[in-house]
Structures are given as C-alpha cells and as structure tokens.
Amino acid sequence: MQQPYSVVIPARYASARFPGKPLHPLNGLPMILHTAKRAEESAATTVVIATDDERIARVCTDAGLDVEMTREDHPSGTDRIAEVAQRRQWTDDQIIVGLQGDEPATPAEHLDVLAGNLQAHPHADMATLCMQMTSAEDYANVNRVKVVRDHRDMALYFSRASIPAQRQALLSNTPATDATMPASYLHIGMYAYRCGYLHRYQNLQPCELEKEEQLEQLRVLYHGGRIHVGIVKNSPARGVDSPDDVCALEAYLSNL
User: Fold this and answer.
1) Using an 8 Å Cβ cutoff, are 105 and 205 in contact?
2) First and final CA of the chain: distance in angstroms?
3) Which segment of 12-21, 175-184, 233-242 scores lowest on mean pLDDT?
4) Considering only CA atoms, which of 173, 216, 62, 131 is closest in space to residue 49?
5) Which residue among 125, 126, 154, 181 has the highest number of C-beta atoms inside a 10 angstrom radius?
6) 114-140 residue pLDDT tens
C-alpha cells in the first residue's frame, strides 16, 4: 500500500523570461490553478501552494487552496519546499512531491508513481522521472534537461548539454538527427523527497556545477546524495519556459 504523501507547489512571480508566469491565463484560468488541479487529481492527502508573492497567494486562497507564505530569498524550489516542511513540522519520513507551478500538464498518476518510487527505494534521498527522447531537436535544446543513470536507476548526472555525447559526431561537428541520436533521456522536472533529507539539503552549499548549469539537483549529487530516476513512457509535462510555450499548452489542456 502506498504511503500517504503531500504535494507542495512552489510558485514565484519573478521570472527573467516570463514575469508573472504563475498567474498567466491558460484558457481563462491562471496557470497555477491548473497545476493545483493536477495535484488534487492525485492520491496526495495534502496540496500546498508555497509562494512569497501576495498576488499569487490571493488567487490561490480565493480558489480555496492551502497556501503557505515563504521567504523571498530562496535560491531554488527545493529550498522553498523545505521551509514548508519545517513550518508544518512534518515528520522525517513524510514524503513530499514537489510540483513546479509552471507544470500544469503533469499527469496526476505521475505524482503517485514518483511518491511510490521513493517509498520503494529507501536508499535514495530523492526521486524523479524521465522519458526516452526521440527528437534530435530536444536532444540539442538547452531548455530540455537530460539525465544519465546507472544500472540501479540512480542519477549519474543532469545537464542542459546533449548527453550522452557522441564522440564521432563531436569530432566531425555533425549534428545528431532523429535516426542517429544516442539513447538519451529527458528529465521530467519534479521530485519526491523525504522531509528528513530536505532538512539536510538546506545546509548544503550550492556547488559550481549547479551554478553553471542552473540545475538545483546537481547540488544533491555533488554532496553525495542519491536520486532515483524512474522511467515513464510518455509525459506531456514540459513546463512553460517562455510565452511561446503557451499556445501548445492551451491546446493540450483543452483536450483534458
């Protein structure tokens, strides 16, 4: 039987590429409310919006959602989730799934799978998901984060670069095509944590890899943490990186 778990949705107003992103309307409804709906469709026993912005908090509170106001200085969503866990005094073995506020197309079942994977792997500190890439365009896209794993499905590295790289293609400066690209996995950017590890995470210093790649999960690997990476066959969840992503996402949400 799956252990009860909570979903925390970190949402901030500031964004270099898309200011006010959580409140941008998708088919007439603010993005953050679509994301909260996905969480409420899961088996999670609690869904909390974690924000430092009164505008986001007001929209969510008016919709009847549970909101936790957090500090403004968090460098990552994981740090914001850790503050919620501390404020709520959740026990060390409590499982939390963090769902980014700009992931309104996330299937609810993926949240359940993620929490179950962490429960099933007690030696992992965190869990996340990936799916096999089939597009060379995604393989080359710096906004599509890739992950490589070991034989136990534990993360070896995450990167915005095209990994694993093909030596001959690099030497000959030959771009990969859909037919020639290596087996590569697209990271699906949500995580499950145990509260006990979140408390330790807050004391970990950011590393150079994290700063260079702008990927907070690299802090975990750098300090020796283990991240289980489960595979799902397909995921429409790509998040919203810029206003250019809105039209495709609205079309997907209309079909739900």
Assistant:
1) no
2) 28
3) 233-242
4) 62
5) 126
6) 999 999 999 999 999 999 999 999 999
